[in-house]
């Protein structure tokens, strides 16, 4: 098909939902060309950006947005809108053009002209927290696709709970790069397994990536790959609007998730750069743009979309008004408490019962202390939290009985029943973390999961994005140090706490006992705008907090858990399993007449954000500061100072029973006391 052909759209007018809303005066090709022109012009003006993908996928996006997608530009937060994920985030001008053309207030023509500039609504890659209408932040390839799996799971679960006020599709545009990334394997396997038939992926099958032809590095048959994972997979000409519409129509009734591979030409319309990597990621240049305008029969000034085309697009933006109004009526007809519960969950407000639930758990621990591993303390807390907070959906990456994330009452989610609240993610940590992000983004769900702390590395890109997007996802990461023992250094995290603490806007909790564990759970749930990690032990720990505190002491980030007998000469700061060791060291020092205080530091980040006076008070002014954590020192100087003593790890761990390992690596009360005394003298 030649670039200026414009006859296809008119052919698609069969009178179902696939019908074009555009006025008959404006055909499909002119609507698609509006996207192409805006993409070329914005990238040219910014002297930076990716014109090729929006130009290549303009036809697919036009069919989707003008005939299928359920959305209302006046209400980007409409809970039952179809979700649209641009997984190939480098093609951001595609979504900005669509938001402008369909009439979202967030993206005006002025914002299109400010593409990629500081403070604009049109940053380089789509950022959901900047631009209403953008569902998730994409750019790191593969993440958006996996987010979409989470959105589709969230939709099915909420539909199972609330009925027909939740009934929408999740659409994705994904590129070669998205499908080459390993995370896509995890995501599509999970989607296929769960038969997420309302998930529809439009694959930009252009055979080009940055280095050139895809044949340089890839020869996967994507259709067979997706089919093998339990999807329906079809190929269409990505520039044939009728074929695209027919495939999307067929997808509506699929019993499996759907991949539509859209054979497209990157940079469609550009005279010399079409089909070439050279149109991927740089401005086309004045001559090429001139030629493209000519090829596309789009002889308008830069950034100018004529009234006819704009009117047709704005009409497309109004298509779902009636459906939206009908949905509002359905919501209003729910009984009052169901509606209030739906809205509470969708707006991310916690149930009032949380505070009482946490208090009850703490009361029970005060009455009957538990000297158990914090992973078990977490399970104990979850037995009460999960019933009290029905939006919590748990899971594990095939370590359920090690992470203790599944409570007795939790039913697993399956393809035939989405009402459950536990997800067996399989051995897919990265996919799990990105899926959790998608569930949180969808709204109505607080996802939590489980794996070993050492495998936080496998989740890291998604945790980083959750932090960037300010999403509440909670990662239970157990086996949090050499304390896991015999599995050895491959499984013993050493640098992971520091690495997680390095990510802005993440709360890393390392509770020291059963009471701190439930307090940290409460903080993770209450921190609506950031992800949390709960680093928990495999080994048993004494319950140090025996008295009932109504306050959440962990909220301060650090607090004195064992007071000095007199004015402290030594402050020992410790986290998690090392707090009990520090308390034993305190006793040894006391026996030598050295008053010592122990400060538990369950959360560095909360300590760092505490008011200066409170922070200073808890750090104190003892002559010697000692930090104890079975991990590397990095990050500790902010608490103990660069001249503080640190007792922890400098190497990888080893395989042995954990008590021997603590001795071997010198993380013992004796070593701590000696180090403090040496520094004092
Ligand atoms: C995880 C990740 N690695 C690398 C990149 C840099 N990058 C951006 S687009 C791209 C590949 C481009 O090929 P494709 O995905 O097919 O997009 P197209 O050029 O067809 O638009 C790469 C490597 C990235 N964005 N994310
Ligand atoms: Mg490509």
Q: Can you characterise this structure?
A:
42% of the residues lie in helices and 12% in strands. It is of the alpha/beta class and 681 residues long. Strands 9-8-10-11-13-12 form a six-stranded parallel β-sheet, with helices on both faces. A five-stranded parallel β-sheet has the order 1-2-3-7-6, with helices on both faces. Strands 14-16-15-17-18 form a five-stranded mixed β-sheet, covered by helices on one side. Helix 10 links the parallel strand 6 and strand 7. Helix 15 runs antiparallel to helix 21. The longest helix is centred in the first third of the chain and has 20 residues. The radius of gyration is 28 Å and the shape is elongated. It starts with 7 loop residues before the first helix and ends with a helix. Magnesium ion (MG) binds next to strand 4.
